[in-house]
Each structure stands twice: as C-alpha cells, then as structure tokens.
Amino acid sequence: MTLDRAAVDRLRARLQAYMAKKGLRSTAQRRLIVDTFFEGASHMTIEDLLTEVRARDKGIGYATVYRTLKLLAECGVASERRFGDGLSRYELADDAKAHHDHLICISCGTIVEFEEPRIETLQDEVAHRYGFQVTSHKHEMYGTCADCQKKVS
Amino acid sequence: MTLDRAAVDRLRARLQAYMAKKGLRSTAQRRLIVDTFFEGASHMTIEDLLTEVRARDKGIGYATVYRTLKLLAECGVASERRFGDGLSRYELADDAKAHHDHLICISCGTIVEFEEPRIETLQDEVAHRYGFQVTSHKHEMYGTCADCQKKVS
DNA sequence: TTCCATGCAAAATATTTGCAACATT
DNA sequence: AATGTTGCAAATATTTTGCATGGAA
C-alpha cells in the first residue's frame, strides 16, 4: 500500500512544519532515516529500519532511529503498530484514505491491510452504545494466509 | 462479565483433564492461584494476581503465578490479552458465549467487553476476501469512557 | 523414589533515558 | 555561542528461564 506522490508530499510538509514549530533541527541522520522510512517497506520494525539505514551509513545508532520514529509518530506522519510479536512496527500515516486494519499471517509474518467501512460504522455504533468517545482502535485478524495454506504444513 | 456456574465447572474440568494428560501435579500454590484467578476480577495482570494471591499466602513467587497463568492459557482456560500498556492481562476463556472484544478507557483504565455479531460476520467476509484462514482476532477501541468524559479534564 | 513444581536470581527482550561530545542554527 | 542531536552505555520494564531445593504421586 504505497502512498501517492501528493500524500507523501503532504506528510513531508507536516513533518517540516512540526520540526519548525518545535525548533528541531535537520540533521544528516534524521534526513537519512526519514527518507529510508518513506521509501522502505511498510510495517518495518526499528531494527529493520536500522539495518537499511546502516547500509547507507554505518554509524547510525539504534537510539537515533528510535527517536526519529517517535518524532514521526508524534507529528502524525507515522503510526506505531504492535502485532503481538513484541515488536513495534511503523507505517506511514495515511489520513487521506480511510482507516485500515490488518490481517497478519502467523506462519510467514505477512501483513495485509484491509478496509471495511461497514465495520467502522458498526464500531461507532458500539462505542455510542457504551458512551465511549473513541480516539483510536485496533482491529487485527491473525491466521494463515492463502500462500501458507497451500504449503500444507 | 462473570461466568455462570456451569461454564466455570467446564473450565475447571478442562484444566484437570489437561493436567492429568500431561502428568502435571496439583500443588497448594497452583490451587490457590487458580482459585484466586477464577474468583477475581477479569483482565488482571500477573502483578495484580500475585498481590491477591500473596494476601492469602505470602510466600508465592512471581514466577509461579506466571507459569500457572501460562498453563491456564495453554489449555484454553484463560486468554492472554494485551491492551497496549505493556502488560499482559488474563481473562477466563468463555467459549460458551460468542467471542467478545474490548473498549478500553485510556483515562481510567476501565475495560468494557462488547459483542457485536455483525462485526464478526463482516470480519469473516474480509478474511475470505483475502483467502485468510483466521484463528484469532483482536478488536479494541481506545478512548474515554462515559464517566471520564463527565470529569471534564 | 521419581520427577514435577517452587522460589530466587539471573537472563533475555525491547524500549527508554542520561550524558558527554558534536552539529545545526 | 546557544541549544538541539547523536551514539553509547546504562537504566527500565516485563517476561522468561536455570537451578537447587522441596513436594506430589
């Protein structure tokens, strides 16, 4: 689920605005990490991203990647996800599109995104029923993807 | 969401059968921890349960509670849940009833269970659309409960 | 008597933070 | 020059495991 050019530009602008507002600085490390994150696969862990980043600059530290991803999450450019394997994963935020949720293959780790507006509607209904004001939600299905089902087992 | 007597008996029987099959032993600690778990509130953390258990027997160790909950989860008597605060929580399994999901108040920590069969149906539809064979799912909504909304903020 | 269970302490996992040196503005 | 940033190491926070001792069967 790659974002189109316009969406990417919007996110980059948001980051820039946030950094300006906060008086944060543009460093070589930050630029490299951010670029790598934007270009790389979705749902990467900090470790994943660190590996890719180090391929381009060996000196980058874990904490810098960690802090940069945190920064991206803070300003709404990235979303942190946890899929139960104990690792935090990050994906580009995409508020231009409807909220999506995830199907996770417990065999190969593949993560598929899905959208189902009718579920969102029912969710709202449930929240209203309990008087909750919902700020975020998590809807994940764990199982075996089509490919892994074929591989017998 | 307390279970009725019959459901509890069923779960206890399942545990007993599992232990017998595996040659596991009934110890005073295990009995105490299991009883406390069955009688206590839902969604307790290991630490919560340890506190309650120690009120009855000071000598119980964290690891024993940890291992007992793991045992309960293994045989399907308890379900482990994680609601994003970094702690594992446990609730009694209840396969007699429809699967339930959770509303979590990010202000006071209250956890409300809900059931919405229509969401389950749509879920199945989505999984089928992607060829996934779903074995479990997680559907959580985070926000502010009715009470906390009143407390202004 | 055998072998599982317990409690303690140590290890393992991941995340988060303190700090001196360094870089941006 | 002032202040934010980096990388390293240490601190956290939890969960998980090793092991000698104790207990169930």
TrEMBL record, chains A, B:
Subcellular localization(s) per the UniProt record: Cytoplasm
Predominant localisation class: cytoplasm
Source taxon at top rank: Bacteria
Matching InterPro entries: FUR, Fur_C, WH-like_DNA-bd_sf, WH_DNA-bd_sf
Alphabetically ordered keywords of this record: Cytoplasm, DNA-binding, Metal-binding, Repressor, Transcription, Transcription regulation, Zinc
Signal sequence extent: none
CDD domains, per the entry: Fur_like
Family: Belongs to the Fur family.
Subunit structure: Homodimer.
UniProt name for this protein: Ferric uptake regulation protein
Phylogenetic classification of the source organism: Bacteria, Pseudomonadati, Myxococcota, Polyangia, Polyangiales
